[in-house]
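Quick one:
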Amino acid sequence: METPAVLAEPVRPPGIRPLPVLGGHLALDFANTVDDPLGPERWDHVADYGALLYWSVQRGIASPALQALAEARPGEADAVVRRAAELRDALNATFGAVVDGAPVEEAWELLRPFCVEALARMRLAADVHPEWDQPVLDAPLWPVADAAHQLLRSADDLHRLKRCAGCPWLFLDRSRNGSRRWCAMGDCGTHEKIRRYVTKRAQRRTG
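Output:
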């Protein structure tokens, strides 16, 4: 089987934008792979194996060679996509609980199996850099799960963890004064400013 040198970008419907990468951390970026999650243009950017692999290759955590393997084993590839959705749900539940100051034990029970598998599959390169065996269709999930485990162990980064004030996306606030409120000022921040302006104008008219 031939391995594509470069993966083709997944086709998106008209009006669906390329997925912004705004979380500031691999695990959070994967948690944020559903764009406009509460809006009319909701789109899952890793809804099939080709899209999952494209996202992973763009982030430097998987090899394009997995595309040929996925085509040869479509049933297994579909199962990995379902596991990817479960991982994303576990990430949002776990880090959402951290942001909310809620108990994390139940969410951690969902995330822990992914972290355990990632550690079991990990090997260290000569420069003591973690690597994962390829080609295995599950391979894109392991660096994400390991990144989540590392984030949970980093008190400094957890202190910076926030949820966007306009949508459910998670991010690390690395601003100098820790005042970041939005996943992106040009998206949720702008929408909130417009909403406030319209509300105030309506109040002036009825006041």
